[in-house]
Amino acid sequence: MTSEPTDPAVLRIGAVPGVTLTKWTTIWRQRFPRVRLDVVDVAEADQRRVLDAAAVDLCFVRLPIEAEGLHLIRLYEEVPVAWLAKEHPLAALDELTSADLAGERVLTSVDAAAIDLVASEAAVLRVPLSIARSHSRRDLVHRPVSDAPATTIGLAWLVANDHPSIQEFVGVVRGRTENSSRTVQERSARTPASPQRTASPPKPPASRRRRARRPR
Fold it and tell me: Is 11 helix (H, G, I), strand (E, B) or coil?
């Protein structure tokens, strides 16, 4: 994937499998219609490479990732599951442990060949729930693995990337509202100050005012 120069009118967002961006991209297009979002599917093995190559401006990554030279925000944890054939004996259980999988061929990388092995009951995939859901098939089921380590999704971008819209997108992902203090401050900075009116001098207290004398 080749590097492209930064275009302030386009923000390129990468995402590893299992990440759903609909909520964030919808908000972005409502608030910032003048900056186009280009969403790029990124293989987990390439998540650091696409950032270093400036092929994307930000990337939703699955930890761990080499963090040197990156800004990295942890977003949420993913539930680990065993993805297996519907007819597999372990599919009868509601929840599994690592001990249940001890006698199985356990795979962790998802591709067409791995899914075929799972469907034929020759292997089990241990993956985040989001990945199993994104490849939903009627002949496969997933069961939570209670003692397996959870995985974490984060948002990463290069420290050296100076794209002007990065912080705006980070704010959308973090849930910053359109009327947040930061947004209000930026709008205020762009709005010229109104000319100040000269204040009228204060009136003296009533006790100091002279009463007019009535004619006798």
Answer: strand
Conformation bin of residue 136: beta by default, left when phi > 0, alpha when psi is -120 to 50: beta
pLDDT at position 188 is: 42
Q: Please tell me whether residue 167 adopts helix, strand or coil conformation.
A: helix
pTM: 0.78
For residue 200, the model assigns a pLDDT of: 53
- Per-residue pLDDT reduced to its tens digit, 36-59: 999 999 999 999 999 999 999 999
List, in order of start, the domains of the chain with CATH numbers. Answer: 10-77+151-178 (3.40.190.10), 80-144 (3.40.190.10)
Q: Which residues pair with 37 in a beta bridge?
A: 11
Residue 3 in tokens: 């590097």
| Structure tokens, 38 | 């280009």
CA distance 216 to 214: 6
Alpha helices in the chain (DSSP H): 22-31, 47-52, 112-119, 129-134, 166-173, 181-190
Which pLDDT value is given to residue 191?
Answer: 42
Do residues 17 and 131 lie in contact, with contact meaning Cβ atoms separated by under 8 Å? yes
C-alpha 95/C-alpha 163 separation (Å) is: 45
The closest of 74, 71, 51 to 159, measured between CA atoms, is 71
